[in-house]
Write the structure tokens for this entry.
Amino acid sequence: GENVEQHPSTLSVQEGDSAVIKCTYSDSASNYFPWYKQELGKGPQLIIDIRSNVGEKKDQRIAVTLNKTAKHFSLHITETQPEDSAVYFCAARRETSGSRLTFGEGTQLTVNP
Amino acid sequence: GAVVSQHPSRVICKSGTSVKIECRSLDFQATTMFWYRQFPKKSLMLMATSNEGSKATYEQGVEKDKFLINHASLTLSTLTVTSAHPEDSSFYICSADDAVSYEQYFGPGTRLTVT
């Protein structure tokens, strides 16, 4: 089955700096890679995703890159703000009906004002 | 993005009683819904996959007679924790697959405390 590893487990940055979180996956058949943000006591919120037919996707301050050959994908947050502080999870799945997401272990991002 | 609701958000029950948690997709149809359990500072642990109109598929180690799942329509799935014990106390989260985009959206979670 799929295995997703996520690094780092904790990340502390100063407001305005960039933050990068990296994930690797094992199943070459995985073709959908979402990123979720989870605030304390809440459910995960989908913030960006990428499919295997593209190498990069950007949405304002958030971008995701995918290297299919190396089975790596990364989340990039620029101009970080205190409200970006949360736990971020990467995930991978095959894009078929009913297929499960496999999650990384999460990264606690803290943005210091 | 699509919205998934969960009810209740918090529930406290006594040992031995049963608790039902509802999960609804509000603005899209969900052929498949998923139920997760999350322990403090941990990732999400998949409990079961719920398909509309058929029996749920449970992950290894999850007792199907204890965690009853019903997916009665394309917008509603329920999880019933039967004969609850203190060790069942946890944060339970559902998610729903958008049948068109295959994007998966999560509910806000239910905090269950068994006394």
